[in-house]
Protein backbone atom coordinates (compact mmCIF):
# COMPACT_ATOMS: atom_id res chain seq x y z
CA UNK A 1 0.00 0.00 0.00
CA UNK A 2 1.37 3.42 -0.96
CA UNK A 3 2.17 5.69 2.00
CA UNK A 4 -0.64 8.14 2.69
CA UNK A 5 -3.29 6.18 0.81
CA UNK A 6 -5.29 5.47 3.99
CA UNK A 7 -5.49 9.20 4.69
CA UNK A 8 -6.38 10.00 1.08
CA UNK A 9 -9.21 7.44 1.10
CA UNK A 10 -10.66 8.82 4.33
CA UNK A 11 -10.29 12.46 3.24
CA UNK A 12 -12.13 11.61 0.02
CA UNK A 13 -15.00 10.06 1.98
CA UNK A 14 -15.21 13.06 4.32
CA UNK A 15 -15.16 15.51 1.40
CA UNK A 16 -18.19 13.73 -0.05
CA UNK A 17 -19.99 13.81 3.31
CA UNK A 18 -19.21 17.49 3.78
CA UNK A 19 -20.81 18.19 0.41
CA UNK A 20 -23.96 16.32 1.52
CA UNK A 21 -23.20 13.21 -0.55
CA UNK A 22 -23.84 10.30 1.83
CA UNK A 23 -23.56 7.72 -0.97
CA UNK A 24 -20.19 9.18 -1.96
CA UNK A 25 -19.02 8.94 1.64
CA UNK A 26 -20.09 5.30 1.88
CA UNK A 27 -18.47 4.43 -1.47
CA UNK A 28 -15.15 4.27 0.36
CA UNK A 29 -16.42 1.48 2.63
CA UNK A 30 -16.55 -2.25 1.95
CA UNK A 31 -20.22 -3.34 1.64
CA UNK A 32 -19.90 -5.53 4.74
CA UNK A 33 -17.99 -2.97 6.83
CA UNK A 34 -19.12 -2.58 10.42
CA UNK A 35 -18.93 0.57 12.55
CA UNK A 36 -18.42 -0.10 16.23
CA UNK A 37 -19.51 2.85 18.38
CA UNK A 38 -18.29 3.18 21.94
CA UNK A 39 -21.26 2.65 24.24
CA UNK A 40 -23.36 0.60 21.82
CA UNK A 41 -23.59 -3.16 22.26
CA UNK A 42 -23.86 -4.03 18.57
CA UNK A 43 -22.05 -2.59 15.55
CA UNK A 44 -23.77 -0.45 12.93
CA UNK A 45 -24.06 -1.77 9.39
CA UNK A 46 -23.58 0.48 6.36
CA UNK A 47 -27.36 0.61 6.08
CA UNK A 48 -27.56 1.94 9.66
CA UNK A 49 -24.83 4.48 8.94
CA UNK A 50 -26.55 5.56 5.69
CA UNK A 51 -29.84 6.15 7.53
CA UNK A 52 -28.22 8.09 10.35
CA UNK A 53 -26.08 10.28 8.11
CA UNK A 54 -28.97 10.96 5.71
CA UNK A 55 -31.04 12.17 8.65
CA UNK A 56 -28.19 14.38 9.85
CA UNK A 57 -27.63 15.92 6.42
CA UNK A 58 -31.33 16.80 6.24
CA UNK A 59 -31.56 18.10 9.84
CA UNK A 60 -28.40 20.21 10.12
CA UNK A 61 -27.45 23.28 8.14
CA UNK A 62 -23.74 23.71 7.44
CA UNK A 63 -23.07 20.14 8.64
CA UNK A 64 -19.31 19.72 8.49
CA UNK A 65 -16.90 17.10 9.77
CA UNK A 66 -13.62 18.90 10.44
CA UNK A 67 -10.37 17.00 10.43
CA UNK A 68 -8.45 17.81 13.60
CA UNK A 69 -5.88 15.04 13.16
CA UNK A 70 -5.48 12.17 10.69
CA UNK A 71 -2.66 9.69 10.32
CA UNK A 72 -2.27 6.15 9.10
CA UNK A 73 -0.11 3.40 7.69
CA UNK A 74 -0.03 -0.35 7.19
CA UNK A 75 -3.77 -0.66 6.63
CA UNK A 76 -4.96 1.45 9.55
CA UNK A 77 -5.78 5.09 10.17
CA UNK A 78 -6.82 7.16 13.15
CA UNK A 79 -8.66 10.47 13.01
CA UNK A 80 -9.88 13.03 15.49
CA UNK A 81 -12.95 14.85 14.17
CA UNK A 82 -15.14 17.76 15.18
CA UNK A 83 -18.70 17.62 13.84
CA UNK A 84 -20.40 21.00 13.54
CA UNK A 85 -23.72 22.20 12.21
CA UNK A 86 -26.90 24.09 13.04
CA UNK A 87 -30.01 22.09 13.93
CA UNK A 88 -32.67 23.26 11.44
CA UNK A 89 -34.76 20.12 10.93
CA UNK A 90 -36.21 17.27 12.95
CA UNK A 91 -33.49 14.91 14.17
CA UNK A 92 -34.00 11.93 16.44
CA UNK A 93 -37.50 13.14 17.18
CA UNK A 94 -36.24 16.55 18.27
CA UNK A 95 -37.81 19.58 16.58
CA UNK A 96 -35.38 22.19 15.22
CA UNK A 97 -33.66 24.06 18.03
CA UNK A 98 -31.41 26.22 15.82
CA UNK A 99 -28.59 25.36 18.22
CA UNK A 100 -25.09 24.78 16.95
CA UNK A 101 -23.49 21.42 17.65
CA UNK A 102 -19.80 20.86 18.24
CA UNK A 103 -19.05 17.16 18.88
CA UNK A 104 -15.59 15.66 19.02
CA UNK A 105 -14.88 12.01 18.27
CA UNK A 106 -11.96 9.77 17.46
CA UNK A 107 -12.29 7.07 14.82
CA UNK A 108 -9.97 4.18 14.04
CA UNK A 109 -10.25 2.64 10.57
CA UNK A 110 -9.09 -0.65 9.09
CA UNK A 111 -8.30 -0.34 5.38
CA UNK A 112 -7.81 -3.11 2.84
CA UNK A 113 -6.91 -2.01 -0.66
CA UNK A 114 -9.08 0.97 -1.49
CA UNK A 115 -11.89 0.29 1.01
CA UNK A 116 -12.51 0.85 4.69
CA UNK A 117 -13.41 -2.55 6.12
CA UNK A 118 -14.17 -1.57 9.72
CA UNK A 119 -14.28 1.50 11.92
CA UNK A 120 -14.43 2.11 15.64
CA UNK A 121 -15.78 5.40 17.00
CA UNK A 122 -14.77 6.70 20.42
CA UNK A 123 -16.27 9.73 22.08
CA UNK A 124 -19.57 10.95 23.43
CA UNK A 125 -22.10 8.90 21.43
CA UNK A 126 -24.95 11.05 22.78
CA UNK A 127 -23.13 14.38 22.40
CA UNK A 128 -25.42 15.65 19.64
CA UNK A 129 -28.53 14.98 21.73
CA UNK A 130 -26.99 16.51 24.85
CA UNK A 131 -26.16 19.67 22.94
CA UNK A 132 -29.60 19.87 21.30
CA UNK A 133 -31.21 19.66 24.72
CA UNK A 134 -29.08 22.59 25.89
CA UNK A 135 -27.27 20.56 28.56
CA UNK A 136 -23.71 21.17 27.41
UniProtKB/TrEMBL annotation:
Gene3D superfamilies noted in UniProt: 3.10.450.50
Q: In terms of domain of life, where is this protein from?
A: Bacteria
InterPro entries associated with the record: Cyclase_SnoaL-like, NTF2-like_dom_sf
The identity of this protein, by name, is Ester cyclase
Q: What's the source species for this entry?
A: Nocardia jiangxiensis
Q: What is the taxonomic lineage of the source species?
A: Bacteria, Bacillati, Actinomycetota, Actinomycetes, Mycobacteriales
Amino acid sequence: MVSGSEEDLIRGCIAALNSGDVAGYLAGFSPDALRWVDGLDTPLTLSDVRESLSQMVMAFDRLHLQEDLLFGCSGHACARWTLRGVHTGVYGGIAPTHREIDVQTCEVYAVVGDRITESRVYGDALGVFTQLSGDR
